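Hey everyone, long-time lurker, first post.

I ran two proteins through the pipeline my lab uses and got sequence/structure pairs for each. Pasting them in order. The first:
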Amino acid sequence: MLKKWISILVPFVLILGIASLSLGAEFHANPIPADLRSGPIPPAKIGDKAYCVIQNDDGSIAYYYGLFQTGDGVAAYMDPMTCGVPNPYPFRISDAHFYLYGFPGSVWPVQIRVNVRDMTGSDSCDGPGNLLCSETFTIPADSAYPHLMNLSLSPICCVNRPFFLEVIYTGGTSSPYPSLLFASATSPTDTCNNWFKSGGTYFEWYLAWLPPVPGDIVLRATGNTEDTTCQVSESLYWKPGYEDYAPSGVPDLDQHQDNWYKYETSAYTFCGPAAVANCFKWLDSKFNIPGGTPGDQSDRYPLVRQYIDGIGGLLSAYDDHDPFNMNHTGTPWQFGATTAPPATLPQPFVLGFQPPGPMPAWGELVERLAWFFDTDGVRTVYCNHSGTRVADLEQGIETWFQSEHFPGGSTLADTLCEKTWKTPTFTEVESLVEECEDVILLLGFWWYDNVTLRWFRCGGHYVTVAGINSEDSLIGISDPAFDNAEAGGRGIVRDGQYLTHSHGSHADTVHNDEGNVSHDVYSVVQHTQPWGLWRLSDYPVSLTPGYCVDFYAQNIPTELESYTGIYGFGPLYTFVEYAVQISPWDYRGDVNYTGEVELGDVVYLITYLYKSGPPPYSMTEADANCSGQVELGDVVSLISYLYKNGPVPRCCISS
C-alpha cells in the first residue's frame, strides 16, 4: 500500500492500476433521421446448450453520436444467464454485432477494437474491469448502417461470469468517425448495463448524456454455452490484459531472432532477457494510465522506454510498445559488444508525449536487458558462460530500476522491487501470480545416472508465468523457446493487432506484436529433488530429450555448475529451480492509520503488544519488518527508521 508520507509518490498516479470511473459528463446524442429510425424488434434469445445471442437493446434504432474521437467508445453489460440454460458456463464469445451509421461528414474506413472485459467488482454498477480478450478490425464504408456488423473473434475468448462487451475507436482515418447506434429506450438506472468511455474514463450511461438520454447501446454478443474448447483455458487464473499494450495478458516474446545466440555454439541463449521483457512489458502496460495505443509516441510509465527514434518504428517514428522497439532488424545483435547502451532520454522521465532523443541505433529492449544481465558474458568476459546467471539477472533488474528517474529524485527502484525464491513451492508461485506479481521461472533439465548414482543437469531455461491453477495442478507459461499451444498442445492462442499471426507457422518476430501469444499449459507434479520441489511433467524437453542439446550448459546458477553434464539416457525431468518475482513495493508502518509513519505508530504498536491496547486497523500494516507476524521486531524496525536512519519499512510482496 502506497503512503502519503513517502516522497516517492511523484509517480503514484502512474501505478494506481484501476479503471477510472466518473460521476458525470455532458455528451449530447442526436436523433437519427426519421426515415432511418426503426421500432422495437423482439430480441433473439436462443438457448439450446449451443448458440446464444445476448443483448440489452429492444431492436429499435433512434440515436447516434457525432463526436466520437480516438479512444472513445461504449461498453455493454452481458449476462450469459439470459441464454435460458441452467448453467451457461463456460461461455465462449464468438462474435460481436453492432451498427455503424455514416452520418454526413463522417469518414471511412474506421478502425474499431472489440474488447471483452471482466467486471471491476461483483456488480455491473462497478463498471468495466480487466481486459480479457481484444481484437481490432478495419471497417469499410460498405458496412455502414443498415448493415449489421458481424465481427468474429479469432482468439478463443471464454468467461465464467457476466462480462462487458466494449467497442473502442482506434483510428484508421481522421474523425469524425461513423457512429455506433442507440435504441429508443434504455435499461433502468440501477442496472448499469451501458457505459460511455471518453478520455480514458468510463461514464455511467444516465450520467453521461444531456437530455434526452439515448437508449441502450445496440451491441450484441453471440457465442456458445458450456463450450468444451474453454475447459483448459478457463480452469486457470490468467493474468489480465491491458490496452497499451498487453491485450492478451503476459506477452510471449521469441528468443530465436536477430543473432540472439552464443557465437561459439550457435545456441540461442536470450531466454532470460526475453522472459524479463515479457514481465516488463506487462507491468509497463498495467501502469500506463490512462492507456493509449502503440505508435502514439506517448508514455506514462518508464519501465519500458522507446529505443528506436534514431531508426524508426513500424507504427510511427518511435513508441515504447512498437513491435520494432522489442527488436529492430536494422540493428542486429553484435556478438561481444564492448560499449554499454546509451541512457534513455530525457532523465528524469517526462510524462506524456515523448520528445525525440534521438536514440542511437544500439539495442532495443531485449538486447539492452542482455547487457544489463551480462548474458553470455557480454558485459564482462564474452563467452565466459552461456545464457544468464540468476544472480546477474537479479542485479540487472535492480540496476534497470535505478536507471529510470522521476522528477523529485526517486527512481523506479522506489516503486518496484525484485525478489528471488530458491526452489519455490508451487503454492508460493500460485500465490504470487494470483496477487498479480510478475513471476519468471528458471527451469532445469535433470536426469539421474544409475551407473554413477548421480543427478546431472544438462541445461536450463527461463519462462514467464501467464496463468496457474493449483486445483488441477496446471501452469500456463509464455515460453521464449516453444509455442506449444500453437502447435496443437494445451493452452490458449491469442492474436494481436499489428502483425499477422498464423498459428503454428510464422516468423520469429511475429510475437513482437505483444497481442500475439501462445500461452502453453503444462501439468505440475510434486517431485522432490535436490534442486526442485516440483516439475512440469509434459514439458517438451522432458518428452523429447533430444532438445536438451539446445540448452546445454545454459543459465547455470553458480552453485549448480558441478552438476552440468551431457544427457545420457533415461527419463529427463523439468524441475523449477528458481522463481524471480517483480512487484510494486508494499509500504508499511502506518499502524494508527493517520496517513504517515511517526512516533504515534510506535506507541500504538507497543500498547497493542504489551498493554492490551486495540489492534492495528491492518495487521499487514503493522508487520513493518515483513516477518509475517506482528511482534517486537516491528517496533524495532519502526524506531530504527524514525530515529536511526534505518530502512523504510516496506516489503517486496503484495499486501
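...and the second, right after it:
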Amino acid sequence: MNHPIPTIAIHGVGRHEPGEIEARIKGTVGGEKDFDLSVAEFNWDQYVDHRSVRSLVDAFKNLQRVCASFHAVATTALKVRRDGLDTRLSEVQLTCCNLLRHLIAIVIATVFGIPAIVIVVLLPTALLQIAPLWPTRELRWFASVVVPVVFYLAAALVVSIVALGCARAVIGRSFAPVRSAITCAVLTCLVPFLAVVSTPLSVSWIVVGAPVGFFCIFGIFVSVLEWLLPDTPAYTVWRDFVIAPYLLGILVGLAGLQALRYLLAQVWHEGPIKILLDIARYVGEPGYRYRTLVQLAAFIRDKQGNSESLVIVAHSLGTIIALDYLCNWSAGDPDRSISLITLGSPYRRFFLSCLPGVLFDRRLLNTVGRISARYHSFRWLNVYRPWDYIGTSLRLTDDAAGADRSTRQYCRLNGHADYWGDGKVLSTIKVAWRSLPQPTAPSDVPSPGYVPTVDERGRSVEAPHFPKLVGALACLSLGWMLYSFVGQQSELVKTRAAIDERGVRGEVFVSHREIPDVADELATAHEFGFIGEGLDMPPYQLSPFLPASIAQQRLDYRRLEQFVRGNCVLERKAAWFESERFLLCASKEPIEIAYLPLASKVDFYLPGFESQFYYRDIPSWFLSPLVGLALTSIPAIPFIFLTSELYAVFLSRDPSEALIKISENLTALSTSFRRWWMRLIRKWC
C-alpha cells in the first residue's frame, strides 16, 4: 500500500472556497494510478498585515510601508554587483537613486505644502501691504524656470543611473546591470503614483464618510436657514461655503471616490497592482520574507513527516516563495525528491528581467542546479496562459531544467486570475505530469543570488523636523518681505520716472480725516482725499503701523497731515464727545501733484511731500513683520505638520510620535462623538 505524497498548495487571495484547491489537485494529479496525494493549503497572504486606514496615522503608515518597500526593491536591484570598479559604480548609482528620492519627496511635500507657503510666506507680505498676495510675475518665473530645472535635474539623475548601469554592463559583460538600473529608475519615479493608488483600497468609510456627511448636513442646514432668514447676517456669512455648487462638489467627490475604489478593487483583486505590491513587499521587507519562510518551513515540516517525496504547487508570488524556500532557505535533504508545479509565475518577467540576481542567480539553470544539488531529485513543471501579464514561459525546456506548458487559452484575456479553478489548467498539468524531465545535479553547487538580510537597513535619512520646517518657512517669509520691498521701491522709481517723462502736473486741495483701521478696530488709519480739476481719485488710505507699505512709501503722511490740519476747513463743528481728527478737514491752499492720467489712479506722487525715514518707525519696521508672521503661522501649523510628515513618509521614515498622539486624540474624539450621536438617535427614535 502506497502512502499519500505530501503536497503543499501555496496560494494567496483568490476566487475559491476553502478546500476547493485540495479537491481539484487530488482530482487531477492525484487521480493517477498509484499516485495518491495528501494536499495541504498554505495561504501566504494571511501573513500580510492588511491594515485598514481608520485613522490619520494608519494612512501615513500605509504610505510609508508602500514607499519603503518599493525604494528597497529599487536599491536592492543595484546591490547585485562584483568586486572592484563595479562596486564603486554601484555606490554612485545608489547615491543618484537617493538623490532622486529626495528630489521627488521635496516636490511632493512642496505640492502639499502650498497652503502653508501661501499662509506663512505670501500672506504676511500682503497684510503688511508691501506686495499683492499672488505675485504673478514671480509665479510665472517659477513655472518657466524652477519647474523645468527640477524636471531636468530628475531626468539627469535617471540618465546617470542608466548610464552607470551601461558602464557596469560593459565591465561585467552582462546586460543585467542595465535592466537593474532601469528597474531602479522606474520604481523610484513611480513610488508616488503607486502609493496614492494603493491608499484608497484600504481607506475605511468611517474616515471618509464622517467628515463628508458632517459637511453635507451642515450645508443643508445652513442653506435652509438662509432660505428662511435671507437677511440675517449670522447665516448669510456662510453663503459662499454652503450654496449648491459647493455641496454638489462634495457629493460628486464622494461618488468619485466610491467609483475609484470600485475600479481599483477590480484591478486589485489578483490584478497587476496587487501582484506588484506583493512582490515589492516580499523583496523590499526582509522581515516579512523571513516570517513567511519561517511559517512555510514549519508548515512543510509538519505535513511531510517521513515521506521521501514532496510536491509543491504554487501560484503567482507563491511560486517565488516556493523557489526561495527550496533554493535559499531549506537546508536540503539528499534522500527526498521534490516536484514543483508553478502556475503563472513572475519568475522570468519580474526577477530574471527586472531584478536579475536578486534572491536567485541570473541564470535559470544555476537556480535549478542549486536546488537539484540539495535534494535527491528535482522536477519542475511550469504552466502559464498565453495572455497572462504576470506569468509566462520560463524556458525550462530550452535549458533542460524542466517543462513549460501553455494552456493555449488565447481567448482568455484575464490570464492571471483563477488558475486553481480552471479545468484547462488542471488538465494541462495532468497531461504533462508523467513526462517531466529530471535535471542532472551539477558537481559544484551554484551560489545563490543576492538575498537581503533581516537586519539590513537602508541609509538613515533624516527628514526635517517640524520646528526646522517652521524656521525655514519663517526665514523664507522674511526673505520674501525683503525681496518684495526692494521690488516695491524699484517699481516706485520706475513709476516716478514715467510720471516725470509723460505725466501731468497740477494743483489739488487735500482733505484728511482719521478712520477706524480695518485690521484693528482699536487703531486708526489716515484717509486723504485729492480734489482738483479733471482729477478723479478715490480716497487714499494708509495705516501708520505699516511703514513698509506701498501707501506710506508713496508720500510722507505726517507732513501732509500737518499741512492740512494747520490750515483747513472742517466739514462741521465737532460735538463735545467727538474728536476733530475724525471729521473731514479740507486744506485752504493747494499742493502740487504729478500723475499719469491714462494709467492707474494710484500712479502719482507729491513733489513736496515725498516719503522720508523716521526713527520713531523703527519699532514698527521690526515688530510688524514679526507680528504678522506669528499670526499667520498659527493657522498654518496643520499644513506645515502635514508637509513635514509627507516628506518623511516618502523617504521611508516612520510617522512621528506627535502624529501618533494627534491621531489617537482625533480617533478618541470621533468615537465619543459617534457614541453621543447614536445615543441621541436612539432617544429620538
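Reply from user beta_strand_b:
Welcome! Quick read of the second one: Residues 487-612 form one domain. The chain has a mean pLDDT of 78.
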